[in-house]
Amino acid sequence: MYVLHEPLRVQPKCRVELHVHLDGAIRPETIWEVMRKKQLNLPGDGSLDDLKRSLRVNEPRDLLHFLQPFSLFLPAFRGDLEAIERFSFEFVEDQSKESVAYCEARFCPHLLLDSQSTIDLVNNDETENTVGDQITTDGSNVAAKQILEAALRGIQKGEEKYNTKVRLILCCIRGKSEWSWDILNLCEEYRSRGVVGIDIAGNDEVAGEGLQIEEFSIFEKAKEKGIHRTIHAGEEGGWESVKQALTSLNAERIGHGYRVIENEDFYKECIEKRVHFEMCPHSSYMTGAIKGLNIPSKRHPILRLAEDGASFSINSDDPTITGTHLSEEYELLRKWGFNEALFTKANFEAAYKCFLPPEEKQELLAELRKAYGIISDNEISTNDKTDNSSRTKGSGSPSLKPAVKIASWEDRTF
């Protein structure tokens, strides 16, 4: 006899994600609807299934190949404030479904401006944009600030409905230094209105050549202003790009960073300094980052980091392109041997290394402790007193139930 059970109505918000691109997490259904509404050319027979197949990268090559699908759908959203607000709202809903308590999503507002060109994120080339002025809702030009505000509106509405907190990190693009000062100014202006940090994305393989003097100055200025910093490094580029991010760009966290294990001495130094690595398992294969590792073993670096007690988080990067969300990332790691302890540690590391203000960070840590059922010293003490007072005189064993004491993460020194 089989008994049917209804699914859980409420699941604890127990995950923290630090590396996901807002414009790389748009639902294929939304892309399809927007492109159809604007009568843009859809791949294949124009069906949603054919669009999904065109969006997803299934063969690992390199970063350029991985980013190509963006040229298919990003033009449809350029300058369209209504559509940007919509996919930002939907992003929060999707994060809530993934049991995410807090997420830092990143994007470059300038890539969504209604310009007449599409930026190649790898080679910094510009190609003709066939969408043209159809992409705006009212036919007028919009500014980067309006793009950002549309995203923040969608996020705020999503937070109010789904009780998942989302903050933004604004991305500079390697080789596009003309945008970088504007991005820094937006980070400062909106730092108490939903923006918590700055990043730089693009091909880090030629980081030293690709970065311009202005970009070094921008991250130095960001440090002076107290703006948090995370850098894409160690993906296409070698371990040297990670070192440059930490030393020349004042990075507090590293986006990806897989190739740090190519240099043992530097890798050990990163562990000792508690450098946090934002790991993205599925995308690391699809970008060819793992294939390019210059080490004898092709084990994924996240396994090495886990074994060595390094600081890292688990992230989805670009769900639109990989077709995977956090659940699939966790399932992949579970197949590789991760257990509950490693998942729990990764989420607490992410919470501790997030860019929230101290008070909000403490609230997030408390929320995680509650979600994971971590018993505090006060609760243990209260239980002790209650059980002692209620014991029957002369009874054999105490009635106190077993409890696990977990060290407080606020007391950590890294």
TrEMBL record:
One of its GO terms (biological process) is negative regulation of adenosine receptor signaling pathway. The keyword Hydrolase applies. GO terms for cellular component: cytosol; external side of plasma membrane. Its EC number is 3.5.4.4. Keywords: Hydrolase, Metal-binding, Zinc. It is found in: Cell membrane. Transmembrane segments: none annotated. GO terms for molecular function: adenosine deaminase activity; metal ion binding. It holds the Pfam family A_deaminase. Belongs to the metallo-dependent hydrolases superfamily. Adenosine and AMP deaminases family. This is Adenosine deaminase. It comes from Armadillidium nasatum. The lineage of its organism: Eukaryota, Metazoa, Ecdysozoa, Arthropoda, Crustacea.
